[in-house]
Structures
1.
Amino acid sequence: MKVSVILAAGEGTRMKSKKPKVLHEILGRPMLFYVLNSCKHSQVEKNLVVVGHNKEKVRKAFEDEKDVEFIEQPIGDNVPYGTGYAVMNALDKIEDDDTVIILNGDTPIISNSTISCFLRYHEERNNDITVLSADMKDPTNYGRIVRDENANVVAIVEEKDASEKQKLIREINSGIFAFKGSSLKSALTKIDTNNAANELYITDTLEILVNEGKRVDSFKLRDTREILGVNSRYELSIAAEILQKKINKEYMINGVGIIDPKSTYIEYGATIERDVMIYPGTRIDRKSIIKEGAEIYSSTIKNSTIGEDVLIRSSEIEDSTIGRGTTVGPYAHLRPNSHVGENCKIGNFVEVKNSNVGDGSKMSHLAYIGDADVGSGVNIGCGVVFVNYDGRDKFRAKVGDNAFIGSNANLVAPIEVEDYGYVAAGSTITKKVLKGQLSLERAPQKNIDGWVERKGFIK
Ligand code: UD1
Ligand code: CA
């Protein structure tokens, strides 16, 4: 069986954060998610994640994740520490004839295709250990790959333990290894803490296997970006940029137009159909679905379904659905549980919350529609407020098909305006308006002749 062991028990001191390192997010997902996801999409059949520091938080963040087994690494003054020790804790779950791939939870860009090629290479050559390496422009802080005069890999030296000469080596250890289960088990019994960090290093197994005459090999990656290890928030930002580019590219190849990929943040997992156009400054989360032909300008879409040919400008849409051909914004806010039908108009500074809006209804400017069921073909004028809250409880309003709510009206819920009910501008409506009625609630207008002149205001 092919088993992954993903190391996620470290504290991540260099992040200078209360949050465990592997939970720091890139595009809405913890770093660890990406490593795990790439394993799941490769030939790996079983995934083991080693947790220790903040283990409850890490487990919780992945509680919905299937096909993952968490392994606990004891943490404390009386137990060892280090990547070698982390792996030791997983050995019970590994058979001698397994192929084991070890990855660091802080290497989020690694792709499933690289994992697959790497495992294939390792197995085809019948290696005992294969290390995934790369030539880095700046190898600082990585373990260096030491080769002998025949260019065979003979050891991995950590930066802390490296001589000045070894520090010049640019080929680094990605932290990703493939092992024969039996070789991993036997080599791990022989590592010790005789190093600058006083830790049990997984990297030491390589030299041990070399000395035993085992098949030791390396697999060098050209694209060094894939193995970027994230230790600080700065490196997190670099990893985020690379992943953003990669995710956006995938959507573009599938027919989504992205005008400025740098300022477009799409979470892995979002469903975006062909011919969707995404303009600068847009964020789309992983739970959103954007259908063919929709155009999104500098907007944030969270957990929402956007219908075909919808146009959204500078707006925020959360936990909502929008039907085909509807236009939204600029500066509209669809709050949770809003369901807007087809060919509607939700205009400037309109807020909709927990409401249903039927097909073809229009609210073009400055309105609040909260806790309402609005029919189709309804016109809601400028400044209309659905008064849904009495300071203690929320109430619903119902507006029938083809109703007309004049500008600046208040509909005090619970309230109903039946089909073809008309509400005059400026009215505060507290009683049901029946089908076809005009409801007018205003003090009669009084015009006083000569008043301004009498006051002496006219010069
Ligand atoms: C490690 C490698 C280094 C490699 C680099 C690649 C070792 C000794 N060094 O260094 O050669 O170039 O990764 O990015 O392996 N972890 C545990 N338990 C522990 C300690 C660490 O699970 O007791 C986990 C961490 O959570 C992390 C991973 O192992 O995900 C790597 O640990 P880290 O401290 O970041 O190692 P590096 O110094 O980056
Ligand atoms: Ca690291």
2.
Amino acid sequence: MQATIQKKKFYIDGEWRGGVSYKDLISPYSGDVLAEIPMANEADVDSAIEAAYRAKRVMRNLPAHERASILERFVQKLSERADEAGEIIALEAAKPIATAKGEVARTIATYKFAAEEAKRIQGETIPFDAAAGGEGRVGYTVREPLGVIGAITPFNFPMNLVAHKVGPAIAAGNTIVLKPASQTPLSAYFIAELFEEAGLPKGALNVITGSGKTVGDRIVTDERVNMVTFTGSPAVGIGIRNKAGLKKVTLELGSNSALIVDEGVDVSEIIDRAVMGAFSYQGQVCISLQRVYVHESNYDAFVEAFVEKTKTLKYGNPLDEETDISALISGSDVERAVSWIEEAKNGGAEVATGGGSDGNVLEPTVILNAASDMKVSCQEVFAPIVLINKFHSIEEAYDLVNDSPYGLQAGIYTENVHTALEAADRLHVGGVLINDIPTFRVDNMPYGGVKESGTGREGIKYAVEEMTEMKLVVFKK
Ligand code: NAP
């Protein structure tokens, strides 16, 4: 238990402001109180939006090289304090420290990409004389910042998913009101501190914490907010879309990502990576490997090697460098996951390993022969649970992958180039990974889903497109 519990403050208009009420932030692993977090009321949200609204002009007028310099200085500061940043993530999210440090390294890369992208936001010239009646004109397009971006982020990548909103928003000359997940506010406040030091103009970034509904509803419905960028669960995302009216909305939602292992693949080469994809951060990754479909010729070998590797994973304290698996984000998530495993067992599926829990730690669980209508298959498990099923023909495998309300990313291992190209065509997802698991992301690639996995794309260049609007300028000579 820490000796003194830090009382955090909102970051609004370049100032640190206390709240009227506070809530304890509890470690999901130890149950210790980590900090006291201010809970925003309507007036706090209003102040944050007003500050962002007032700062619009300053940010819009900031030259690209200055926006880039602010982001570069921020990158320098985060690099200097990377270890501290990793510990914050590990503590509040129960993310094993090695994975948390990996997130910090990616966050630094994301802001670097944003600094670079700030300098290449550009339009094009239009050949007006190509249209009859267009002669005697020259014209070009520019991309202008939208204004105020409302950013709502989830708990699972509390630094890098904030970076995917704050980085491109600043690169494009927007201002931001950020509402981080209630379980992971410390990462967001830490980032705000570093932006303050990096010289970001007052009001350009505002961070407020509190109930998703109170803060979220206000951000989503306020007329001064021009765009809502949300990463989180489909249920909340759909609610946001329904309330946002004509605001631009980007939704990065959940999935039950799948992998096909074709005949002829040497399974020993892919097991380590597949196990990592299924259980990294306890399966609480939007592209966690949840469903594996293996050709009947490889099935037994794959299952045996996968289960054996799974049994070597170490459970424990997220701050321990040796830990692979720590606590789920909440006790209710453990209960939900256990009840879904029970449903699968009762329906005739086989649990090959795992299934038990200790406190908030759920054992990594491998389920065989789960029917496609079981919750562990057709919903997003967001827990260390993976299904392995057999297929007989590649056609059947495509159908199994596509039989999902979601479509974020899918992977296929195959030795056959024709199958690879056909899979790229047939899988209905935002990204197809050939000879890799679906759990792959680097921060400059376009990233986002189809179906209930969302709309819009992140990856700095693509997020900048979403956060700007095109204007046409035509000169009559
Ligand atoms: P969540 O429960 O949907 O929460 C996400 C954010 O929305 C939090 O800040 C939450 O605040 C807020 N919120 C809750 N109710 C709201 C409302 N009525 N209006 C506006 N905002 C509201 O998701 P989570 O459990 O944190 O994250 C897990 C989900 O995120 C999974 O489905 C995962 O797949 C998805 N995800 C997707 C991606 C992607 O890029 N596609 C990446 C990571 C995660 P509170 O915390 O205060 O409730």
